Amino acid sequence: MKQKYCNCHNTLTVKQCIMALKDEVVEFIQEPSLDEFSDIIYCVNRFAGTITKQPYLKVLPGDKTHVDKIRKRMMMYGCIRSTKHLVKGRCPNGSLNPIQTVIGKQFKWN
Fold this sequence. Notes:
This protein is mainly alpha-helical. It has three helices and two strands, in the order H-H-H-E-E. The chain has a two-stranded antiparallel ribbon. Helix 2 (34-51) crosses helix 3 (64-77).
């Protein structure tokens, strides 16, 4: 089976979900936007996944903007997280380096 996401998309703990949700709500309060709202919905869906022992379970609509961001990031640099979370330009969980199959295509990372 081909890996669709990096290891940052593994199932979160309840504590990780709560912290991520808190961070996204703060970002939304600081800079309200559809993008930030989508991030909050995505966190809620990740929390639902945690409860059911999955990385993600869609229980609320509205996270399409965030999901599209993740797909774009995976194609660009092989990690679901924003560039500010990368370590030396790579996924902080060490996944998808140097060659990995992502969304049905092979990317070579220099």
